[in-house]
């Protein structure tokens, strides 16, 4: 059942550009980006329980690294690779100090890193052009970007699926539930957390590179801004953190809500958007997918894979 | 030398202001384990109402600040009562996530409604007091007054927490919630009261903001993040921690900004990250 | 004074208590005995309002308390001294004791009860400005009992008061419990130290697998073969 559904959805998405609907195509690219960010956030946040409010830093670092290197004339593929690697290296570097922190300390210190990156990119204007932003070579990249981001979304979902079925995933869950006990039982806690962060960062970094390549122009607030940082996390939590399909549903839901509100209401769309997030948090703790009817449906079609 | 002293004074004032708002946030976190992302909105609302009443009546803005305190308390109280209390019984991890969603949603909502109703532009109260020279030092009465008030408030909070029964109950709830219940503390009420106090402190800080600096409806999340950083820097739940954390950040900003205005904020975050690397639980955390 | 009628308690689908019935009369010492996991702590947490029973009633002084919040139950004079002590680690001994007298009724008699507590545990007076978190285990237990007494209990529930204490201190704790009882405070004692607690109790209940397996006068239970074999190891 689940294979049929996923197959149909995937097939539809694969042939979608044929219909030549630029508006929806753009919408889907943005949607893929958010799904990827939410899902890759959840590899760390949902499975190990470390709420990484600094996830967007990986995205931004990927975006800037790609942009800067590609502008120097480096080949496209090497630039993508460099963007990803930069995010991974950053993840490894910060994982050692950050994972000494727990709970809210971890979340906030990670968030402070995003703000630090935002201010650094603003101020190191000789390299990053500061608030003027960074421009890269123009070109019409709608279709390749569509497929690249779709591919990446599929990849992150598959990776999440493989994680939930592996011993590694089990170890992550043990960190989330009872870190100290897991440590006493010989789970290499630090290595598990660092690995999770590296996987999570590599996807975000690559997506950051794609994003620069696609939008042609980035500035610090586009990639490191407060709302940009919080949205993927809100999406993952809203959809259902720790369930593979949760962040996907959260991203689809929130982006459709946002798009609808923006086109229907001239004023107060942010307020309405905030209200939706608030109500979900208040009445659906655990996210949309854990609502009883939704959950039952997802279990029946075999899409409720939880760690 | 005069410049150095001026900078230090400015930095301490800025830091005291930070500490004031940050401490409310820290209390809330201590008592209810909630990262209140809507805290900055309370600050903004305090400043905004001060601005509106000042524009209409021309009263002394600090007096207005005093008048709106009960309303600020009430706002914080009902915020907890209706938005936070339903989450109280949930599992730790779920509660942390739900509270992030609820307070983030509330922050977006309050900010946008405010900018719709009151206009999105920056607002400031144009209220001045004479200045004087003390030797070569240029001192503004307004800043001096603000400093004295902040110091007074800090001492006041300290005694409130040490000496009053409610203040002690608040600390008791932070240290061992089950223990607090066992001596008869109504911990749900204490949580709401703490939100009320947090909102009051934020609104006072908002009044200082609108008089000394300026406010705008979309400032909320930005300042909240800054205060969250300060309480992490100082150690969650510690009054002295918030104060020292605030002053360190304020001093860094004012001194670095003097040499290069753009780098003030950057340096502040850099210091924050560096301190956390050395002391993962903050300067005064346990 | 305390009447527990057929309470059933569940954790999710797992049933922890099966129709537990027990009473404590005023000025009595009653022991609640049983092995680890028999449901002792669940029983007292239900009495104190931390857990809601799915069925059954609990009355204290003829008022229903199983629907009250924990702090309201404390207000009625039913005080628990938990096994984990649950002190306020960053407060001084004095502040911890003062917190015991948080509620209005106890606040008025603060000075008298302070004298009472310092009379029972003179060492606490010497330690009064020390932070509770820095005390030894035995001293922490004294603060916990002292804090409970500051609330002016009419019924005091003690959960494993002798756990983890040196033998000398255990004897002292049992003496103190008797002294408290002589002041007219009813006591419900939850203990694994069966012999000692039966010796100071009037009556006792034995919990096994979530229900009362045996009850009676403490002196009788001490003589029963089953208790002697399974719990006293004689």
From TrEMBL, chain A:
<feature type="transmembrane region" description="Helical">
    <location>
        <begin position="229"/>
        <end position="256"/>
    </location>
</feature>
<feature type="transmembrane region" description="Helical">
    <location>
        <begin position="271"/>
        <end position="291"/>
    </location>
</feature>
<dbReference type="GO" id="GO:0005886">
    <property type="term" value="C:plasma membrane"/>
</dbReference>
<dbReference type="InterPro" id="IPR001851">
    <property type="entry name" value="ABC_transp_permease"/>
</dbReference>
<feature type="transmembrane region" description="Helical">
    <location>
        <begin position="7"/>
        <end position="37"/>
    </location>
</feature>
<dbReference type="Pfam" id="PF02653">
    <property type="entry name" value="BPD_transp_2"/>
</dbReference>
<dbReference type="InterPro" id="IPR043428">
    <property type="entry name" value="LivM-like"/>
</dbReference>
<keyword id="KW-1133">Transmembrane helix</keyword>
<keyword id="KW-0472">Membrane</keyword>
<feature type="transmembrane region" description="Helical">
    <location>
        <begin position="196"/>
        <end position="217"/>
    </location>
</feature>
<feature type="transmembrane region" description="Helical">
    <location>
        <begin position="145"/>
        <end position="163"/>
    </location>
</feature>
<feature type="transmembrane region" description="Helical">
    <location>
        <begin position="49"/>
        <end position="69"/>
    </location>
</feature>
<feature type="transmembrane region" description="Helical">
    <location>
        <begin position="76"/>
        <end position="99"/>
    </location>
</feature>
<keyword id="KW-1003">Cell membrane</keyword>
<dbReference type="GO" id="GO:0015658">
    <property type="term" value="F:branched-chain amino acid transmembrane transporter activity"/>
</dbReference>
UniProtKB/TrEMBL annotation, chain B:
<protein>
    <submittedName>
        <fullName>Branched-chain amino acid ABC transporter permease</fullName>
    </submittedName>
</protein>
<keyword id="KW-0812">Transmembrane</keyword>
<feature type="transmembrane region" description="Helical">
    <location>
        <begin position="193"/>
        <end position="213"/>
    </location>
</feature>
<keyword id="KW-0813">Transport</keyword>
<keyword id="KW-0472">Membrane</keyword>
<keyword id="KW-1133">Transmembrane helix</keyword>
<feature type="transmembrane region" description="Helical">
    <location>
        <begin position="138"/>
        <end position="161"/>
    </location>
</feature>
<dbReference type="Pfam" id="PF02653">
    <property type="entry name" value="BPD_transp_2"/>
</dbReference>
<dbReference type="InterPro" id="IPR001851">
    <property type="entry name" value="ABC_transp_permease"/>
</dbReference>
<feature type="transmembrane region" description="Helical">
    <location>
        <begin position="225"/>
        <end position="251"/>
    </location>
</feature>
<feature type="transmembrane region" description="Helical">
    <location>
        <begin position="263"/>
        <end position="280"/>
    </location>
</feature>
<dbReference type="InterPro" id="IPR052157">
    <property type="entry name" value="BCAA_transport_permease"/>
</dbReference>
<keyword id="KW-0029">Amino-acid transport</keyword>
<dbReference type="GO" id="GO:0005886">
    <property type="term" value="C:plasma membrane"/>
</dbReference>
<dbReference type="GO" id="GO:0022857">
    <property type="term" value="F:transmembrane transporter activity"/>
</dbReference>
Automatic annotation (TrEMBL), chain C:
<dbReference type="GO" id="GO:0015658">
    <property type="term" value="F:branched-chain amino acid transmembrane transporter activity"/>
</dbReference>
<protein>
    <submittedName>
        <fullName>ABC transporter ATP-binding protein</fullName>
    </submittedName>
</protein>
<dbReference type="InterPro" id="IPR003439">
    <property type="entry name" value="ABC_transporter-like_ATP-bd"/>
</dbReference>
<keyword id="KW-0029">Amino-acid transport</keyword>
<feature type="domain" description="ABC transporter">
    <location>
        <begin position="2"/>
        <end position="234"/>
    </location>
</feature>
<dbReference type="InterPro" id="IPR052156">
    <property type="entry name" value="BCAA_Transport_ATP-bd_LivF"/>
</dbReference>
<keyword id="KW-0813">Transport</keyword>
<dbReference type="Pfam" id="PF00005">
    <property type="entry name" value="ABC_tran"/>
</dbReference>
<dbReference type="InterPro" id="IPR003593">
    <property type="entry name" value="AAA+_ATPase"/>
</dbReference>
<dbReference type="InterPro" id="IPR027417">
    <property type="entry name" value="P-loop_NTPase"/>
</dbReference>
<comment type="similarity">
    <text>Belongs to the ABC transporter superfamily.</text>
</comment>
<keyword id="KW-0067">ATP-binding</keyword>
<dbReference type="GO" id="GO:0016887">
    <property type="term" value="F:ATP hydrolysis activity"/>
</dbReference>
<dbReference type="InterPro" id="IPR017871">
    <property type="entry name" value="ABC_transporter-like_CS"/>
</dbReference>
<dbReference type="GO" id="GO:0015807">
    <property type="term" value="P:L-amino acid transport"/>
</dbReference>
